[in-house]
Write a structure and sequence with these properties.
25% of the residues lie in helices and 26% in strands. It has 744 residues and is α+β, with helices and mostly antiparallel strands. α13 runs parallel beside α15 and α14 runs antiparallel to α15.
């Protein structure tokens, strides 16, 4: 049907053949796998007059872009010479005007003879040429009728299938390319899509079931731009129409909660600018009589939950004014203000007025009775009790960055500490704080780093500071014979084809592993372990082998896996088994991999409502593993979970955590397992604190880190790393300094 539409469109609108034929046909004709069972062959006979040859040649060139199996057999015994071209005609860039071919004049089939691959150009008799070109294809084979599934049903299936199942394929097949579709048909398809999508994401039952609409919102970047843009406009219109209704301060939020979440998702997908969101919230907060305050606070809360990093990076100059507006809200919004301020790392109103905010202490959490296995897969919370042993004490602080520090890396073998921030600076120090070297990365900053001590190499993910530059993978080799000296002078980089690189982890002596988002728009559906959709993006765990030879800049993944359906958030090696590593993603899953296998070998967590084991209820922020098969995971659901890889189940079954702990009712950002000399201990950073966990007992014990000598509050630490040789913890975050803690 799509080939027919394309051929018909070329003759109906000759000018359209000059509009990027390759790009248009790539969107029109679906890519098929190179499998003999699903391949399609066409045998086309077209009778043309000489003056129609320019258009025919362009059409055939277009067909050649789709396949290398196009053959042309010209008829030699032409009965008449082509008419001479005038000078005016030779200068024209438009093909000759052709009559419209009626639909009944076109048909096609899949022939069975050995001449399928050839395309013949047959000279028309003179009387037929005078009547205009006649394109004749063999009659079609009967096609079995398939019962149509409602668009709304297909969209609802995205909750469990995400973008890797058949539902997205069926949705895309119902959205014909706008360039070759009549306006009436296009508008009808758009109306069906918008009506069904709005009915799903704004279904009140979603609130009652505590169900997120994010899996459905992921459809927006996966569909053609025309439909995506129109659907976004509809969502913004409907959301703002509901959010701007005049309400009481204590209005029932279920009436507009989904609209606030939809708006937050649009910000997360970068369809709405963060600064525009901040201005919108401030405008709603300033409305007379507080008629829109409840909606504005709800919208801001959901946006902070989903888009914290974007707010910090992109809306810095507007955040202080927004915080001031929040401080002036009525007492009925006290809980909202506390949640937003805690999430953003702002002092609350009370602390802002007194200037004497106390550091959060760990309160014991009552141990809940274990639920019946068939009723819930959520493990009981372990009580957070003070450990009897050592605790974290601050001993120093290393300034040097002018903005937020996103990542730090430690090389115990060389006694090196590396930090990277939003300012694009990579700062190298000795473990004792002496600055060795600093380097400014042009146009990028490193969002994640790791050291391969065996190769004396630093690997980093380079994210563009602004604009749409592609991400980089950076490699900084240590100079031979200069331990304690300069770490780099000419970093190597891979200009990746990925649209996003979120995390990186060294595989000692072998290479490194990355979490990447790769566009598969219009590309063949061939992957390491799963088939991708013909539109949208694919989330991959990639392994690069640096021992294969050649320049670093030309490296390609030796192997990759595409089982995650959400953006990768973190990776971890398994010290107990050098062949294994772990990955976590926004799909709330933690997968265990073995380099010797072509797919994941297990998952952490118990199956949830989708049947897929989920390790946490919200975004997983960090993973770390010890040499005794213990794994820790942290999440925005405020939980730290402890796992034992020796109990690893199959991919479909998963496994339950050994224990979980909620430290201070705040989202957890990072975990880092400490030196083994002190037993099984780990450091944990939350939105408002830093803690030391003792994992050696039957219950997880926790103690907050000691205060600084000058009385300042502990900042929000976005990364923490241990130096096992120094028995020291390095922590860095939003104040631009690396703080140093020791176990005492």
């Amino acid at each position: 049907v799509r080939v027919y539409a394309f051929l018909r469109g070329c003759w109906q609108d000759p000018l359209s053949t000059h509009l990027s034929s390759k790009a248009r046909t790539a969107a029109l004709i679906p890519t098929r796998q190179s499998d003999s069972r699903s391949s399609m062959k066409l045998h086309i006979e077209v009778e043309l007059s000489p003056e129609e040859m320019p258009l025919a040649k362009e059409l055939l060139e277009t067909l050649r872009t789709l396949t290398s199996h196009v053959k042309i057999n010209s008829v030699e015994n032409q009965t008449s010479a082509p008419p001479a071209k005038t000078q005016e005609h030779s200068r024209s860039i438009d093909p000759p005007t052709l009559p419209v071919i009626q639909p009944q004049q076109l048909s096609m089939k899949t022939p069975d003879d050995a001449q399928h691959g050839s395309t013949q150009l047959v000279q028309q008799p003179q009387e037929q040429r005078r009547a205009g070109p006649q394109v004749q294809l063999v009659p079609p084979q009967p096609v079995p009728q398939v019962e149509q599934v409602q668009m709304e049903t297909l969209i609802r299936r995205l909750e469990t299938e995400n973008l890797n199942g058949p539902a997205i394929v069926e949705i895309l097949m119902r959205l014909p390319a706008p360039e070759t579709t009549s306006e009436a048909t296009r508008d009808q398809c758009l109306a069906e899509l918008c009506t069904a999508f709005v009915a799903v994401v704004f279904d009140p039952e979603m609130v009652m079931r505590h169900q997120s609409i994010s899996p459905f919102m992921a459809l927006l970047p996966a569909i053609p731009d025309f439909y995506s843009q129109k659907l976004r406009e509809r969502l913004v219109h409907d959301a703002m129409k509901q959010l701007t209704v005049r309400r009481q301060l204590d209005a029932k939020r279920t009436d507009f909660f989904l609209h606030a979440e939809a708006f937050a998702n649009l910000v997360q997908l970068k369809y709405v600018a963060t600064n525009a969101m901040v201005r919108t919230v401030r405008t709603l907060l300033a409305k007379p009589d507080g008629a829109n305050k409840c909606a504005a606070v709800t919208m801001l809360g959901k946006t902070v939950e989903l888009c914290y990093a974007q707010l910090v990076e992109e809306a810095d100059h507007n955040l202080e004014a927004l915080r001031t507006d929040l401080m002036a809200l009525e007492d009925c919004f006290a809980y909202d203000v506390e949640y937003i301020c805690d999430s953003m790392g702002w002092p609350t109103q009370q602390a802002h007025q007194t200037g004497n905010a106390e550091h959060t202490v760990v309160e014991p959490i009552s141990e809940a009775p274990a639920p019946a296995p068939e009723a819930s897969s959520t493990p009981p919370y372990a009580a957070a009790v003070p450990p009897k042993g050592a605790s974290l004490h601050p001993v120093s602080s290393y300034p040097g960055h002018t903005g937020v520090i996103f990542a730090i890396a430690v090389d115990d073998a060389a006694d090196h500490l590396v930090s990277s921030g939003k300012d694009g600076l990579l700062l190298l120090r000795t473990g004792g704080g002496q600055e060795v070297q600093r380097m400014q990365i042009p146009q990028h900053y490193a969002c994640a780093m790791d050291v391969d001590a065996s190769r004396r190499a630093l690997y980093a993910c380079g994210v563009a500071k602004e604009g749409k530059l592609p991400p980089n993978i950076l490699h900084f080799p240590l100079h031979q014979g200069q331990v304690g000296g300069a770490l780099w002078h000419n970093p190597e980089r891979i200009s990746s084809e990925a649209t996003n690189i979120t995390c990186i982890k060294a595989r000692p002596g072998e290479g490194f592993v990355t979490g990447e988002t790769v566009s598969v728009m219009g590309k063949p559906a061939v992957t390491g372990v799963m088939s991708a959709t013909s539109s949208g993006c694919q989330e991959r765990v990639c392994f690069y082998d640096v021992n294969r030879g050649g320049a670093f800049g030309s490296l390609q993944p030796l192997q990759w896996y595409a089982e995650h359906t959400g953006i990768l958030t973190c990776l971890s090696a398994c010290p107990a088994n050098p062949h294994m590593f772990l990955s976590a993603a926004r799909d709330l899953t933690v997968r265990v991999w073995d380099f010797r296998c072509d797919r994941s070998v297990g998952m952490l967590g118990k199956p949830g409502g989708t049947g897929i084991p989920q390790a946490h209820e919200q975004l997983i922020t960090c993973l770390d593993a010890s040499n005794d098969n213990t794994v820790l995971s942290s999440s925005m659901d405020k939980m730290v979970a402890q796992w034992d890889l020796r109990s690893l189940g199959s991919t479909s079954v998963g496994m339950a955590p050994v224990a979980t702990v909620n430290l201070d009712e705040k989202p957890v950002l990072k975990v880092a397992i400490g030196p083994s000399a002190h037993g099984l201990q780990a450091a944990v950073s939350t939105l408002t604190g830093l803690y030391l966990l003792d994992l050696s007992g039957s219950k997880i014990a926790a103690k907050p880190a000691a205060r600084f000598a000058d009385g300042r509050n502990i900042p929000r630490y976005l990364d923490i790393k241990w130096s096992h040789s120094r028995n020291t913890l390095y922590a860095a975050g939003n104040d631009g300094a690396v703080d140093v803690y020791t176990l005492m």
